[in-house]
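haha ok so turns out i had the wrong file open the whole time. this is the CORRECT one, sorry everyone. sequence first:
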Amino acid sequence: MHDIVKYFPNLTDNQIEQFQKLEGLYKDWNAKINVISRKDIDELYTKHVLHSLGIAKIMEFKPGTKILDVGTGGGFPGIPLAILYPEVDFYLIDVIAKKIRVVNEVAKGLGLQNVKAEQMRAENVKEEFDFIVSRAVTNMPDFYSWVKDKIAKKQNHELKNGILYLKGGDLTEELKDFPKATEYNLSDFFQDEFFETKKVVHLPLKYKV
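then structure:
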């Protein structure tokens, strides 16, 4: 929790309280429905919360932005980003119903009004979004095929509408068919060694008529 405040010094008292509540909520729900490995639950703030917030170091979402979080699992990166951006709408989806139950209960426990979570496959989502976020649910070619037609036409940010993807390691092979993709090293923003190989990939997507 110390690192959250360190790297995001402009949090409101309410946001700090919400971030503090995350540990208790996840430990409680994880004991009932395992969404985070036991090894990782003790490093929740580094490996899950701060990692999710890496997207915010690349992109500051404007009020009214619509975000789709695909394969959210226990709510990452969507829940931490929803705390950070209370005026942004987040739609969190996963194919596993019990994970969505945890997401809904955590969102409720935090009093988040800007989160909707449903059991849903990405291919079946009918809405359009400014950005689609995810945390390494699959390789980029497959992910692209799921979401390529779900991008809103109107651009409101410096970075073009598209995918913001949290991934680690050497992505040369995975991104070879995506020349417009940009990799951002999270080690440029966060000091913990966990982030040495972690990246945010931005892939702009064109609006499909």
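The mean pLDDT is 95.
again sry for the mixup
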